[in-house]
Design brief:
Blueprint: H1 3-13, E1 19-20, H2 37-41, H3 45-48, E2 49-51, E3 54-55, H4 66-70, E4 76-77, H5 80-87, E5 96-101, E6 110-112, H6 120-127, E7 131-135, H7 145-162, H8 164-170, E8 171-174, H9 189-197, H10 200-208, H11 223-238, E9 245-252, H12 261-265, E10 271-275, E11 280-285, H13 295-299, E12 305-313, E13 319-325, E14 327-328, E15 335-336, H14 346-409
Parallel strand pairs: 5-6, 5-7, 7-8
Antiparallel strand pairs: 1-4, 2-3, 9-12, 10-11, 11-13, 14-15
Helix pairs in contact: 6-7, 6-11, 7-8, 10-11
Protein name: 4Fe-4S dicluster domain-containing protein
Domain 4Fe-4S ferredoxin-type: 52-81, 247-276, 281-310
InterPro entries: 4Fe4S_Fe-S-bd
Length: 436
């Protein structure tokens, strides 16, 4: 492929605005209150978002990245340009990165519309390469409470990720305009050299080559976490005693029996169930894919989770969180709870009950049909008997009527003591009358 062809394809495929994967949105999963964080924090929310996960027009978008950092489920993916813009400072020659908003009077290294426009993953990646100074001078006069709340969430999350000593060593907060905030704890010389000088430029440039717009759907929205994962791997390979990072992951309980509903609900493909040779099933989570949204816990109906727990990790690679032995349904073979009644899953149990009811209904219908047939036969026999009796009565009445009719037709001159027989009855004359 030629240079001009590649340039033209990149220009067509790249977009400066974020991308939305609607299948991963929090609002498409069971919840009590709809999430409108991205629409609320965006300066042009009403003009851009029809609904929180549906965009009607990207033209007003200023590519600030506030919606990317505020999205709780990671369904809003940063554009490749935003990733390169937010992480480019890691390749600079300076040992310290100054980050501030557009209202600051300092000449900061990284200037954004708001500091919270950089997600905590992007800030963590930068902190693993350089020391970070956050210019919070204009924050006291800022009227946007949503941005201030988002910034507090990100800083709290960074403290959980690095730990208090490491956070104080890598981050500094400047509240006053003339304050020079280098009063924090310093790392050892070995840790500083390993974190600052170990392949940051080559590693970042190599990773950025993976983000030209050719991302698969399942990898969308995880660019900053992917960079953070790669950086933690580099540090782990370079250090004798690797650093540990705090990452929130779902905590499984003994009630989990491996039904797989949480795996299907995870749109980021961070949670996988793997079958082991010994018959057990293990739950494997990939932290750098997990956005800590908690959808997996909401879809569980058997209390298989006990909230989100802070784990200490050396890298953000796959982690085994739980193991269990599956109990399978007798009919369909799907996983069921060990104490399930009749050894059937809920679907097969409902089917069995339905079949039982249908069989009972069929037997009742056959019995009712037999009773109706017997009753109909009895009624038919009775009707035939009544018809026979009615016929006999009719014949007798007809005979009596005939006799009465014949008796009425006999002459009155029959002598007494003689019966009205045909011999005594004068036959009518057949001779023609004579003429006189």
């Amino acid at each position: 492929m030629g240079f001009f062809t590649r340039t033209a394809m990149d220009a067509l495929m790249k977009t400066s605005h974020p991308e939305i994967n609607r299948r991963q949105c929090w609002n498409l999963h069971p919840h009590r209150k709809p999430c409108t964080t991205c629409k609320d924090i965006c300066p042009y929310g009403e003009e851009i978002f029809t609904r929180p996960n549906l965009v009607k027009d990207w033209d007003p978008c200023t590519d600030c990245g506030l919606c990317v950092s505020a999205c709780r489920s990671g369904c809003i993916a940063p554009s490749p340009e935003q990733v390169q813009r937010d992480t480019a400072a890691a390749d600079s020659d300076n040992d310290t990165i100054w980050i501030g908003c557009e209202k600051s009077t300092r000449k900061n290294t990284v200037v954004r519309s708001c500091i919270c426009a950089l997600s905590w993953e992007a800030l963590a990646y930068l902190a693993l390469n350089k020391k970070i100074v956050l210019d919070l001078t204009p924050c006291g006069q800022c009227e946007n409470d949503l941005c201030a709340e988002q910034l507090r969430k990100e800083l709290t999350r960074l403290v959980d990720f690095f730990g208090q000593p490491m956070f104080e060593a890598r981050f500094s907060l400047a509240y006053e305009e003339k304050e020079y905030p280098y009063h924090v704890q310093e790392l050892t010389r070995r840790e500083m050299l390993e974190q600052v000088s170990h392949g940051s430029k080559s590693g970042t440039k190599k990773l950025l080559q993976m983000l030209p717009g050719l991302r698969s759907e399942e990898d969308s929205g995880v660019d900053f976490r992917l960079l953070l994962h790669q950086r933690t791997k580099q540090l782990k390979a370079a250090m004798e005693t690797p650093l540990q990072y705090g990452y929130y992951m779902p905590k499984f309980t003994d009630n989990c029996f491996g039904c797989g509903r949480c795996e299907k609900a995870c749109r980021a493909n961070a949670l996988k169930f793997e079958e082991m040779p010994n018959g057990q099933t293990r739950m494997v989570l990939t932290p750098w894919k997990c956005s800590e949204c908690g959808v997996c816990m909401n879809v569980c109906s058997n209390k298989g989770f006990d909230g989100m727990k802070l784990y200490q990790l050396t890298t953000l690679g796959p982690v085994v969180l739980h193991k269990c032995t599956k109990t399978l349904c007798k009919q369909c073979g799907k996983p069921i709870a060990p104490d399930s009644a009749e050894g059937l899953c809920s679907v097969c149990r409902i089917k069995a009950r339905t079949q039982k009811r249908q069989e009972e209904a069929r037997q009742r219908a056959e019995q009712l049909k037999a009773e109706r047939a017997a009753k109909a036969a009895e009624e038919a026999a009775k009707a035939a008997e009544n018809a026979a009796e009615a016929t006999a009565e009719t014949a007798a009445e007809a005979a009596v009527k005939t006799a009465e009719t014949a008796a009425t037709a006999l002459p009155d001159t029959i002598p007494a003591g003689q019966s009205a027989t045909p011999a005594n009855v004068a036959a009518p004359s057949l001779e023609a009358p004579r003429s006189e």
